[in-house]
Amino acid sequence: MTLLVLILLALLCYSYFSLRLLFSLRKVPAAHWSSRFSSARILWARWTGAELKFLLDAHGRLGPIVLVGPQDLSVSSYQDGIRKVYDAGFPKSASFYSMFRYYRTCNTFTSLGRSEHGIRRRRTAALYSKSALMRSKHLCEVTDCIVYGRLLPRLEVLLAGCDTGRMDGLDLSYRICADYLSSFLFGYCNSTNFLSFSSNEKAELNRDDSLELWRVHYENLSCREAFFVQELPGLYRLLKALRTNLLPRKYSEATEFLENWMSAMIDKADRTITLRQSKGLTLEAKDDPVVYEATKEAVKKDSPHLNLKAQRMQIESEMFDHVSASREVLGLVLGYALWYLANHPDAQQRIHAELEEHQIDMRSPSHHHQAPNALDRPSQLDSLPYLRAVIDECLRMRPTSTPLPRITPPDRSVSVAGIDNIPPNTRINSFQWFVHRDPTKWENVNDWDPERWLSMDRKSGQKHGREDVLWPFASGPRMCLGNHLTYYFMQHVLAAICSRFVLAALPHNERQCTPGSPEDELPITVVLRG
Ligand code: HEM
After folding, report:
1. What is the 48 CA–ligand 1 centroid distance (Å)?
2. 477: Cβ–Cβ under 8 A, 6 or more apart, which residues?
3. Which residues, if any, are the signal sequence (predicted)?
4. Which of 220, 344, 391, 420 is the Cys-Cys partner for 415 at CB 3.0 to 4.6 Å?
5. What are the pLDDT digits (tens) for 354-388?
6. What pLDDT, on the 0 to 100 scale, is given for residue 429?
7. ipTM exceeding cut-off 0.90 for this assembly
């Protein structure tokens, strides 16, 4: 009898809340006839990897805000939609895995509330600010080492025909980005050295430093079954309690591999710090584990209640978030930048001409050419409009299909994209694609054309009232931390390559694969600039 009453009460509560939701979101057009009372259709789209396609169609038919589940919305307009959600700093969903969090066993990071998130962000934010990066000797030396000590020699090998004569721009980019970010975090002497291997040497790679091995495990973390943890966490937990784990074995193997890998990186950085502290060794700026050390000190200060193991877990998780940008975003965008340039020799020539016009000699590391009173190289490169336009255009085209879900605040209703009274705890998502690839916002939307950025008035026109804005790093308090580092690095790499070489695109099998996925390949070759 008591059980029956409880079930009835539960049903009544459920109906009451469902009706309230139905009522409050009734003005939002539904993407599918079932979306008002069930999430089945959007879950199916997410499971099959067709969410973006499904939503593009829905927005095309129904406008800038659509209902995809009883408490799940998608928004595509920038000024009255995306800005209201992201600039206001709505939190991330508890179950949704951040694209930058792979320490899945680290419970402290499963859902960071606003204040925890603020604490975590403050640990490293100052190091990633534009002014800090521009004056960083560490970054300047690391950039020289990676570009002149690893990247250009790698291209020279290709040029000399010692190799197959062809390389995958994406593979090259993943290698250089991992080496670069790990140098920035842990010091050059402790970085990965993925760039010393080329993709056609895969078979003989040493298991310890193989990008391929790292990448396979990294991909396994985003395996299809991770969908259950992300989208149906209740079901996942229930089945797990019943001893049915929906995650495959390769997932736990990948977690273990990557945790061990990160732990080894941190051990190396710790040894460098110990050498400096106990033996008084003076480190070259490039070898300083700058970001790691700052994070370690910050965690000690802001989380004294945690034991050493838990503190270490936080540090490892934080570092992994940063390194993973090399695979998720920076690697993808730089790889495609090489590909777009390889397909547009005119753009390469224009970068070269712009460097000459501003007398920036990129043939050797920055400290070789430092004239007294001259602007330092990072500032010089940062002032080049065409180079900037090239990078902006690459960021418009990629990345594109990462969901960025947010949850409306738990304590109030909000208005988004012309809809008032959106109830608390409603999921709202947008894709960068909606901003960057909407043919009603951009001319020739799918053409790679840096010129469009030169004709735009950056200072006055960038954000005010416009829909054709650049939004690759999201916005608001959870905006990407690495946006200035991205420009810094891409400016140096593209300028150095265009000064010495001409990239050419090789015939490309147009495969239907996700850009940046293991199946994707961007074949290029190089010739010496005449
Ligand atoms: C092409 C380059 C990059 C793109 C397009 C990009 C994009 C993004 C986006 C869209 C977010 C927000 C994610 C969300 O809200 O769910 C984000 C966050 C973040 N990014 Fe980037 N990113 C790039 C490079 C980097 C680099 C180089 C780093 C650092 C090494 C980095 C570190 C981070 C971190 C730590 C966060 C989390 C920020 C927070 O939660 O406060 N990113 N990035």
Report:
1. 25
2. 89, 114, 117, 118, 121
3. none
4. 420
5. 999 999 999 888 765 555 555 699 999 999 999 99
6. 96
7. yes
pLDDT at 311: 93
- Rounded to the nearest 5 percent, the helix, strand and coil shares of the chain are 60, 5, 35
Rounded to whole angstroms, the Cα distance separating 499 from 349 reads: 9
Specify which residues 427 forms β-bridges with: 72, 407
Hey, whose CA ends up nearest to atom 17 of ligand 1?
Answer: 480
The tokens 């008084």 sit on which residue? 280
Distance 477 CA to ligand 1 centre (A): 12
Contact 516, 332 (CB under 8 A): yes
- Percent of the residues in the chain that have a pLDDT greater than 90, as a whole number: 66
Which domains are assigned to the chain? 120-404+431-528 (1.10.630.10)
Going by their DSSP bridges, the two strands 501-505 and 523-528 should be labelled as: antiparallel
Cβ(498) to ligand 1 under 6 A? Answer: no
Q: What are phi and psi of 524, to 5 degrees?
A: -135, 165
Any binding-site annotation on 140?
Answer: no
Q: Encoding tokens for residue 195?
A: 């760039």
The per-residue DSSP string of 122-175 comes to HHHGGGGSHHHHHH-HHHHHHHHIIIIIIIHHHHHHHHTTSS-S-EEHHHHHHH
